[in-house]
Write a structure and sequence with these properties.
16% strand, alpha/beta, single chain, Rossmann fold, 43% helix
Amino acid sequence: ATFDKLTEGFITLNGTAINKLRNKEIARFRRETLGFVFQDFNVLNTMSNNDNILMPLVLANERPKTMDERLKSISTQLGIHDLLDKYPYEISGGQKQRVAIARALIAQPKLLLADEPTGALDSKTSKNLMKLFREINQNNQTILMVTHSNIDASYAERVIFIKDGRLYHEIYRGEESRDEYQKRIADSLAILNGRGD
């Protein structure tokens, strides 16, 4: 995600060879192209939810009118409009994760990177978050999510399995129901972990 330097190989994203960018170019590329959602939210408790969400646009020197328009749109879409004046320590984990998602999406990134986004959430909130990700994805937002949960993975159109740092297997949902797809994911995981022999 541009935080670490490559030791070998290359990464090209949207036509840009990331490993050839200088530090300032990397920071700009990250700000303009990527959105991040972390397991532990990474919101700042000393800032209101409103300010946490707007931070990427402030750093990009976006116009106040644009900031207001995007904030209204994203907070309505995520159902957090009534939380904007509160602080992260005043809201639940699921609400914090929606604030973090709003912050990640407000700059309209080309790619949303999500690292175990349900890891700190209860099962009901996790299910709601995955439904939200699916809806966001169906509205043309590309999402790359890392998860160990076959339930979470079953909301994706495509699942890539990695073992020992190498691409091991990939499957596509196609016309299957989510339950059928989830079973196929679980079967693939069993084989991947040596339990399907």
